[in-house]
């Protein structure tokens, strides 16, 4: 009976564990802190309002204004890329793909997205006057949401720039021993 504590194994074989910032289920870890971070909230807002932009345009007679094809292309493409990025970041891909310079990659993504949404917003706003009645409301709302999404992408670009500058902007410096 004296050697009983030495024979007891307190480890379990469960594949689920939880910490304050990560939850792991079957070798997939979820970064719960990302959901509450500024970057996570901004990305979620971009996804939701980006969906509204392309849903409003595609529900109207967008083929009457050729510029709206560009708006649809930009809004749908960035909606898909933002959704994939959100999934990647919530699944802790920053830690799993450590060879990717994430601060720089996010800065480039958000910078390009801001410029593309700027052009989409301008094309959308200019095309609103071609529509009347029911379609006018859709186009006006989509232009308003496009300006909002453009502003959020610009905010994300600023946040990514601050994160990139705070990181030093050089991925090689993180691996050099001091």
Give an overview in words:
It comes from Tachysurus vachellii. Its main location: membrane. Strands 1-2-3 form a three-stranded antiparallel β-sheet. The protein has seven helices and three strands; from the N terminus they run αβββαααααα. Helices cover 66% and strands 6% of the residues. 24% of the residues are buried. Helix 3 (38-58) packs antiparallel against helix 4 (67-90). The chain is mainly α.
Terminus-to-terminus distance: 52 Å
Taken as a percent bin, the fraction of beta residues is 5-15%
Low-confidence stretches: 13-17
Order of helical and strand elements: HEEEHHHHHH
Given helix and strand content, the structural type is: mainly alpha
Number of helices: 7
Let me know the average pLDDT.
Answer: 81
Helix content: 55-70%
Query: Which strand order spans the largest sheet, edge to edge or round the barrel?
Result: 1-2-3
Q: How much is the radius of gyration in Å?
A: 23 Å
Shape verdict: elongated
What's the total number of strands?
A: 3
Largest sheet data: 3 strands, antiparallel
Subcellular location: Apical cell membrane; Myelin membrane
Domain MARVEL: 34-165
Membrane topology: Multi-pass membrane protein
GO cellular component, one term: apical plasma membrane
Task: Please give a handful of descriptors for the protein shown.
structural constituent of myelin sheath; 178 residues; transmembrane; 7 helices
